Amino acid sequence: MAAKSPPNHPEIDWTKWRAPESGEVRSPCPVLNSLANHGILPRDGKGVTKEMAVKAMTSAINLDVEIAKIFASVALTTNPNAHAHSFDLDHVSRHGLIEHDVSLSRDDFALGDNHTFNADIWKSVLDTYGDSKETNFALATEARYNRVIAAKKAHEAANKDFTYGIKEAVLSYGETAILMSLLGNPKNGKIPVEYLKIVVEEERLPYEEGWRPAAHPITPIDLTDAVFKLIHANEHKSAEASEVGLGTVHAVQNAVTSILPTYCVIM
Question: Which of 13, 149, 241, 243 is buried deepest, with most CB atoms within 10 A?
Fold first, then answer.
């Protein structure tokens, strides 16, 4: 079953999905893992070049080529071999580059396993949505902020330092903004909760359920706009601004504008 691809992109057979087998590696990013499970990235998750990553992200999920290049360039730096021209998906677990704390589906680096899907953390995110079948900016940013607070409490309980500055805040907002942009409408924040569950839990893009790649490339402007809408919908935005050390919501928005293009990565 070939998807209707964006203009000038090849057709993709989304039925060729399978879970990883023994010896194959994956990342802490459900979208990257989905691309490997669909065979769009190497199924073994190894030897991913910059060119492979850019082609996969632009052709399959219609990310803007500049975002894809930024991601691929950062991903190369996660390889322990500084002279390598490729990376394995499990290299992306290296903390603080693409992988980040307060992930919606992984534990924090200081608390143990920052690589593997954590069902308890993900359940706490889904609990925010309750019986809702569809996301919106208010619910999505509440789920994200609840995860931040839960992470802070978990660090305190484990007597670990909790770092949540502007970089971490941008990555937290960015993770939600990218998922909303990839899976639905970044203008109104509406995507089926089912799509979220499929991507995060099964690491599969929900073509069979009705999802289609965005008709137009997802640009840094699109992501910044989605982040601003998430900030605006956040009932705790003033408290979060204080937490990250910027003091005002306006300062956070300015920081997002300057920093987000650098951290346009898929979480």
Answer: 241
Torsion of CA 223, 226, 227, 229, to 10 degrees: 160
* Alpha carbon separation from 182 to 155, 189, 195, 198, 214 (Å, rounded): 31, 11, 10, 13, 7
Angle value at C-alpha 73, between 218 and 264, nearest 5 degrees: 35
CB 175 within 8 A of CB 267: yes
Question: Which pLDDT score is estimated for 263?
Answer: 54
- Judge whether 201 and 122 are in contact, CB under 8 Å: yes
Which 3 state secondary structure label does DSSP give 218? strand
Of the candidates 193, 207, 109, which has an alpha carbon nearest to the alpha carbon of residue 151?
A: 109
Query: CB–CB of 207/16 below 8 Å?
Result: no
- Residue 257 DSSP SS3: helix
From the list 66, 85, 69, the residue with the least C-alpha distance to 77 is 85
